[in-house]
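Assess this today:

___
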Amino acid sequence: MLKSLLCTATLLFAAISLASATGINIDTAHHHLGDDFKKGLTPSEPESLVYTATINLDSPTDIRSAELTLTAKSVVSGPTDEFLDKVYLNDKEIGTLNDYIPAQTLEEDAINIAIPIHPSILKHGTYTIKITSGSNADGSNYDDFEFYNLAMHLTETEPVTLEPPLKVAWTYELSRPLFSSPSVSLIAENVVYLENEISIKAIDANTGELLWNTEGGADLAYEEGALFAVRYANIDALDAKTGTLLWRKEYVTSDGNGPSRPIGVPGGNPVIFGDTLFVSSDKYISAIDTTNGNLEWRYELNLTDFGTGGRNYYSISSPAVSEDIVVFQFSASHSSYTGPPVAIEPGAPEPELGETIKKEGLIALDTNTGEEVWQYAYTFIVDFFPESKLSLRLKDAF
């Protein structure tokens, strides 16, 4: 009979960073984008269809959050399929002004807009900001709008020097059955998240107090107050502070050659970039919209250069994301033997060595579409005992 054991998780916790805010005033002047005179805008005459500005970031420290802010007037309110006024950072689209304009907004109303920027795309160097006026379907008419007070706001983390002697801040005792020890999966916004096969626990990093727990282990990712728990074939989005379920989705697909396959596998380490959660499984990379759980795209690793017959085996690493590409390492092998297991009697000769073809490398995908951008791989042959022929060789015990 399994007995419940008492496991003590001791965390030495000390503040290692502080947040500081930096504001960068880019342009306070009033600008009119569009193609026509419009009374009430400053200036009344349009200056262009496109506005550009450049800024320099001088070796910023670790950026926790960033946003581009401006005040706008007379932007067509969203949602809309036309007159989309877009904002770009180094030619990467980061937002559409229309999405921030409530319905029934009057043309003379000034609306303050804050567009989030993913911190990972901000390093030191020069950045070009571009704002464009959108047109109707046939391009015969453009949105005329005004904006001003363009700025960027950064929240940076500053390292704090820790001086000995360090002391234990708190301990937390975990009562658990005989499963693997819980591990610290991540720490975010002063909350420690522990998980193993049977549960997820959220603990206050300052006091050691249990905030919430839920059944079922998962691989975790955090973004802007939401915790994403990838559990094999489904994903739960939880309120990171309370554990309240925000949404739940199940994702399965069939390759026509076996049972449905999962969205993720244990240890897959999901990665969030912008509003997209990237999850890897044995042969799939999936992109999930973090706001609603919708599947944006799924890439299937399906090599065809192994030829026909036999069986293919795949494994994919956790993805790494940088701006427009998501990169992962893969390993694929092809076994030509598909027969039944073969028993090996004592004294019988060893089975003949077979060959397996292996291919390993890196693949880069477009983060928006899931289409392959490039692949770097090499192929080699490995001698092996055919997997289905391997068995225990029985020997006399006495």
